[in-house]
């Protein structure tokens, strides 16, 4: 009996390439033995509702087609369900950090064939208050960049939109008072930003969290203390080479749970999307989702890529 798949796609992601490829994608999945129906998202939060509905309707596989924003919404539709079907990923957005972390090919034919083979691995999921993420949670001046790039601009010029906004924003970076508490440490500092990572692929910085793994039951925490613009640029340069962990401006630990508060108004960025504001309690749900991956991939899900980016989102 053929397995039933629900393909949830964002018609506007990745310069609208999904709409053009949809007939070919469906044909390839059907020929591979997956009885596939589709849901085109119509606005913010719709992919979350569609994923939850797919679980209720008993689909065997849910496929998220788009960029990191589409994937984030689908994860939030699946994470709270008792029965969670396998999740396939078609990385067709402006940025695809999580697909990179799992070595899922950008080529749509190869990504479809991978889904057809249905080789799965259990991965950890992060929970921030009542929302879920699989790649990164963050807060501070620079992380707000991802909400500031207009969706039409992203569709038209893709990654360049982030560089334009990032360069524009650098002189306005400001420190924020934060209190950060884990079982391993407690910090009360003026900080530029914090990042809580589940994978090693963060905004294109493959060496930002070199020891991070999607299946170790831990989250990696990075805090960038108050610094000036010149120091910030130097630390970013170090981070590209993976040489930032010993810098005195960086605080790093691995943990299962973290509590972050601030007297200031601080937005929380989850996988490139607005995920509420501080205070925030972030924890890890070990081995929580079954993701369809390449059977030849390593168990630590590390990937080699070197395309630095300043932010990520898809609409």
UniProtKB/TrEMBL annotation:
Q: Which cofactor does it need?
A: Mg(2+)
> Which UniProt keywords are listed?
ATP-binding, Kinase, Lipid biosynthesis, Lipid metabolism, Magnesium, Metal-binding, Nucleotide-binding, Phospholipid biosynthesis, Phospholipid metabolism, Transferase
SMART domains to which the protein is assigned, alphabetical:
DAGKc
Q: Which PROSITE patterns match?
A: DAGK (PS50146)
- Residues in DAGKc domain copies: 1-132
E.C. code? 2.7.1.107
Pfam families xref list: DAGK_cat, YegS_C
A GO molecular function term, named singly, is: ATP-dependent diacylglycerol kinase activity
Alphabetized PANTHER family for the sequence: LIPID KINASE YEGS, SPHINGOSINE KINASE
Annotated family: Belongs to the diacylglycerol/lipid kinase family.
Protein name per the record: Diacylglycerol kinase
What is the species listed in this Swiss-Prot or TrEMBL entry?
Paenibacillus residui
